[in-house]
Design a protein that fits this description.
The chain is mainly alpha-helical. It has five helices and four strands, in the order βααββαβαα. It has one domain. The strands form two sheets. A two-stranded antiparallel ribbon has the order 1-4. Helix 1 packs antiparallel against helix 2. The chain is elongated and about 55 Å long. This is DUF1617 family protein.
C-alpha cells in the first residue's frame, strides 16, 4: 500500500505522466498513474462536498463562482479552510498489490533514466522513489 499525502497526489501524477520512460517501464507507470488518478477523483469529490457545505449558493442551490473561484460564506470561511487543510494533510492509501512485483522495474527505470531534472521535479522524483522503495521493502 502506497501512502501519499493528498496534497502531493497532483505533483506525483504530473511528474509520472511527464517523465520519459522506456515502453516496458512505462506500462508499469501507466498502471500506477491510473490508481493515483482514482485517488485524485476521490479527493476532488471530497473538496466539492466541502464547497457544498461552506460555499455561497444562488437561489437554485448552485455554488456561486467569481472569476473561476467558488465564493465562500464569510461566517464559515475559516472553518472551510481548516477542513480543506486537514483533508489535504490526510494520507491516501493506494493498493498497488497487482503491481508489487513490477515496482522494482519502475524504480530502476526512474533511477537509470538519462533525463536531467532539478528543482521541484527532482524533489518529486525523490518522493516517488521513497514511496516505491518503502512499498517494495514492505516497511
Amino acid at each position: 500500500m502506497l501512502k501519499i499525502k493528498n496534497e502531493e497526489l497532483v505533483d506525483v501524477i504530473t511528474f509520472l505522466e511527464e517523465f520519459e520512460l522506456q515502453p516496458k517501464v512505462s506500462r508499469v507507470r501507466t498502471k500506477l498513474v491510473k490508481l493515483i488518478r482514482e485517488k485524485i477523483d476521490e479527493l476532488y469529490k471530497d473538496e466539492v462536498e466541502l464547497l457544498q457545505r461552506f460555499g455561497k449558493k444562488d437561489e437554485e442551490g448552485n455554488l456561486i463562482q467569481d472569476n473561476g473561484n467558488f465564493s465562500l460564506l464569510p461566517e464559515t470561511a475559516a472553518e472551510y479552510h481548516k477542513e480543506k487543510a486537514d483533508l489535504l494533510n490526510e494520507d491516501s492509501v493506494i493498493d498497488v498489490a497487482e503491481l508489487h512485483s513490477k515496482l522494482p522495474l519502475l524504480i530502476g527505470g526512474l533511477e537509470d533514466s538519462e533525463v536531467t531534472i532539478s528543482g521541484k521535479k527532482a524533489e518529486t522524483l525523490e518522493l516517488v522513489l521513497e514511496l516505491l522503495e518503502t512499498e517494495v521493502k514492505g516497511v
